[in-house]
Design brief:
Shape of chain B: globular
CATH topology of the largest domain in chain A: Translation Initiation Factor Eif1
Oligomer: heterodimer
Distance between the termini of chain A: 84 Å
GO biological process, one term (chain B): formation of translation preinitiation complex
Shape of chain A: elongated
Organism (chain B): Lachancea fermentati (Zygosaccharomyces fermentati)
Structural class of chain A: alpha+beta
Order of helices and strands of chain B: EHHEEEEHEHEHEEHEH
Number of helices of chain B: 7
Number of domains of chain A: 2
Number of domains of chain B: 2
Radius of gyration of chain B: 16 Å
Protein name (chain B): Translation machinery-associated protein 20
Distance between the termini of chain B: 21 Å
GO molecular function (chain B): RNA binding
Main location (chain B): cytoplasm
Strand order of the largest sheet of chain B: 1-2-3-4-5
CATH architecture of the largest domain in chain A: 2-Layer Sandwich
Helix content of chain B: 25-40%
Largest sheet of chain B: 5 strands, antiparallel
């Protein structure tokens, strides 16, 4: 007997036949239609969302219960949608702060905060920064008890560019990324004259 | 069991020796005899099996980065990813459509959901109490949960009241969303 390969929905990670129970069915349908048209045809045919649900039912649990189930599912879907919207709004309204802090003489470090909203794995990103810039990089808690990534070295611009591309990959183009210089300015043009 | 389970619950991870891998495979086959013909395909000799020890003495086994089965005490329990690949090997019960919603939120399965017209239980003599079953749903192809029988299937049919299956692992729980990397 051969092994089966099951396709998993790219949106909700379930096998597509269970998408209707996740409350994300609209996006799941779009995804399935795009990536696996033949399976889409099999599951939904040419029907729209509600008709398809009715067809899927195949009703063996009695009309009354079926109706209730459908109502519950619709409620779940509405809930899920509003939650997604809220999350998106939160993401769009928050911003990433890249802070440049001076250390001794010409040395400085970069602290990146505000990433946790975007579901980015901080530890992993720290690791990539460390190998990308060949510097020390770690995750630590800042004064507000929030996680931030600390990179040794003056790499604010590169970090900014990288985070922009990262957010774009997630489909969040308009998120603000702000670069802040903490305390004394040091490197923008030339090293300032030492204080007399 | 996996309603709450995060990366923090992982205590240690290690690769297992190939000899341990062999005993694991034979144990799996002895638990689910039908796996014998495909076990080498599911867990090739060359593959790297990783043992992930977690809180509450749960041990996960990952084959090439995918959690395939886990162990709480002595028994090996397959995960849904594993079950989906070869569902024939495991004893199955089927629930009706009305129950899916509750199963997907992690509820134990009540007897009426297993005996109604849309549901299906194995014929007599059926399965003993405490047996491991995979839970399928009406009109669906793939399994949606794995559980343990709280009473034998014959009892479920005759008593038809109360909890029938204790849910262990279901679609969308933390183990399902857990990625090794």
């Amino acid at each position: 007997m051969p092994l089966k390969t099951v396709i998993y929905c790219g949106v909700c990670s379930f096998p597509p036949e269970y998408c209707e129970f996740t409350g994300k069915i609209k996006r799941c349908r779009a995804w399935l239609h795009e990536t696996h048209p033949e399976l889409f045809q099999k599951l939904y045919g040419d029907l729209d969302v509600e008709e398809a649900a009715a067809k899927l039912a195949g009703s063996s649990i009695g009309e009354e219960r079926e109706e209730k189930l459908e109502k519950d599912l619709r409620k779940l879907q509405a809930k899920q949608e509003s939650r997604e919207q809220r999350e998106l709004a939160k993401k769009l309204s928050s911003k990433v702060v890249i802070k440049r802090e001076a250390r001794t003489k010409r040395k400085c470090m970069i602290a990146i905060s505000g990433l946790e909203v975007f579901e980015i794995d901080m530890k992993k990103l720290a690791k990539t920064f460390a190998s990308k810039f060949a510097t020390g990089c770690s995750v630590s808690k800042n004064a507000e008890k929030k996680e931030e990534i600390v990179v040794q070295g003056d790499v604010a611009e590169e970090v900014e560019a990288y985070i922009h591309s990262l957010l774009e990959d997630k489909g969040l183009k308009d998120v603000k990324v702000e670069v802040v210089d903490a305390k004394k300015k040091k490197k923008p043009t030339t090293t300032p004259a030492p204080a007399a | 069991m996996f309603k709450k389970f995060t990366r923090e619950d992982v205590h240690s991870r290690s690769n297992v020796k190939s000899s341990v891998q062999r005993t694991l495979k034979s144990k799996l086959v002895s638990q689910f005899p039908k796996l014998e013909e495909v076990i080498d395909e599911l867990i090739p000799k060359k593959s790297q099996v990783e043992l992930i020890k977690c809180e509450d003495k749960i041990q996960l086994y990952a084959v090439d980065g995918e959690v395939y089965f886990f162990q709480n005490f002595n028994e090996l329990i397959p995960t849904l990813k594993f079950v989906h690949k070869f569902p024939e090997a495991f004893p199955t019960v089927q629930v009706d459509r009305g129950a899916i919603k509750f199963v997907l939120s992690g509820a134990n399965i009540m007897c009426p959901g297993l005996t109604s017209p849309g549901a299906n239980l194995p014929d007599a003599p059926g399965l003993e109490k405490e047996a491991l079953v995979i839970v399928n749903a009406e009109n669906k192809e793939n399994a949606l949960a794995i559980g343990r029988l709280l009473m034998s299937t014959e009892d479920i049919k005759s008593i038809n009241k109360g909890h029938g299956v204790e849910l262990i692992h279901y679609l969308g729980d933390c183990l399902w969303n857990f990625s090794v990397e």
